[in-house]
């Protein structure tokens, strides 16, 4: 990757896709080979959302959940029966959030797991924007697990994110905008921790950082914020790709990374998304 030849668009693409050119099917596309267990799981999640929508909830949350419900319904073949013997349905965003997280390791399809995680991340953003700014616990376990190619792609994204976000911090006056500088500094520290976890998991055979990366246009505080937000969105997409390529319980690290990235987007003065981590 030649830093001199990278355009702003190419830089963000490199952050999102790293070196392996990872791509995956859109999670809302019906799949004829979709396992019955995944159809049941998607139906259960849709039923959970419908139950929360039947409660008195804020308009912004209702709009978000309607979009989530539409995406799930598009993935469920027509005529599919709702699962029987379902546990108590969630009655609010917090219990729905917990249910979605419990479904992620159960999904046999990586695409369904990604969709469920993306919906949980959107709820994390809703909670962060709330008056008490509290979050359900977000963890990113120390042991990273997943296919080597996906881990290498994520590591490449972390190298690029650290470089660009460090430049954002350098462009921000610590004396005049201490809060803004601190946000960038915290983001860099988070990506360093994730880079180190990936490096530890990969061992000696790992993609190195480039000597330098072409920087996005960063004119003024707004330009710096936009660059940082673009980096986090691209990283969230990379974590989503890793999650989709990883089976079952091994998805925990990627799940935590995606959710943390979604919240960092708001910390970096970004706007909430309906489906964080899905390009």
Relative helix content: 55-70%
Poorly predicted spans:
1-33
> Alpha-carbon distance between the termini?
22 Å
Return the string of H and E elements: HHHHHHHHH
Radius of gyration: 19 Å
How much beta, percentage-wise?
A: under 5%
Mean pLDDT: 83
Biggest sheet: strands, sense, closure? none
Total helical segments: 9
Give the beta-strand count: 0
How would you sum up the global shape?
A: globular
By secondary-structure content and strand pairing, the structural class works out as: mainly alpha
Please explain how this structure is put together.
It contains 9 helices and no strands. Helix content is 59%, strand content 0%. By secondary structure, the chain is mainly alpha-helical. It has helices at 8-17, 36-53, 59-75, 93-103, 110-129, 148-170, 178-202, 220-244, 252-267.
Name some characteristics of this structure.
279 residues; mainly alpha; 9 helices; globular
Give the structure's gist in a few sentences.
This protein is mainly α and 279 residues long. It contains nine helices and no strands.
Annotate the secondary structure layout:
Blueprint: H1 8-17, H2 36-53, H3 59-75, H4 93-103, H5 110-129, H6 148-170, H7 178-202, H8 220-244, H9 252-267
Helix pairs in contact: 1-6, 1-8, 2-3, 2-4, 3-5, 4-5, 5-8, 5-9, 6-7, 6-8, 8-9
